[in-house]
Amino acid sequence: MILSDLERVFAFFEVVGSRSWKVLSLKTLAEYYESQGDLDTAPKYYKQYYHGNKALLFDKRQSDIFLLEQDYATATLAKENELLNTEKDLNELLLQKEQLRNRIVIALIIMVSISAILLAIRLRSILSKNKALITQSTTCELMGLYNRRYLDLDHFKRVNDTFGHDVGDEVLVEVARSVK
After folding, report:
1. DSSP-derived 3-state class of residue 139
2. What is the domain count for the chain?
3. Phi/psi zone of residue 145: left (φ > 0), alpha (ψ -120 to 50 degrees), beta?
4. Where would you find the membrane-spanning parts of this chain (predicted)?
5. Residue 62 domain-assigned?
């Protein structure tokens, strides 16, 4: 009865497809035949158990290797992703730095341009005032001639004293008109 139960269990595991339980049932059958003194059948089951167990261990090792490879690939991808993110962050920082540098250069150009325009306006104003001062210092306002020092009217003081300054100014204007 035990043998028929063991053979049914073995057949069940074969149908279900549970390799590890099937291999374990082969070992149990081998031990049963050995305990019954059937030394011809027991080694046959031990041999099947040995090959089945060896295949299970090989498959487990392959599965472990596959899992290790998957873990390594996942870790490698994570590192590559981290590296790409770091490179992206670095590129963003470099872009921000470049944009800031460009803004600073533009601000400096604008400031220099405004300063140059203000200096040009101020220079023009100064030159205009200098020209007016030169004209004023070299031209007689009354006569419109170059400085009175270039023209000496003898005894003109007597004209001013005798006829008054208004008449003297008219005389100076007439002399200037005739000299021009």
Report:
1. strand
2. 2
3. beta
4. 104-121
5. yes
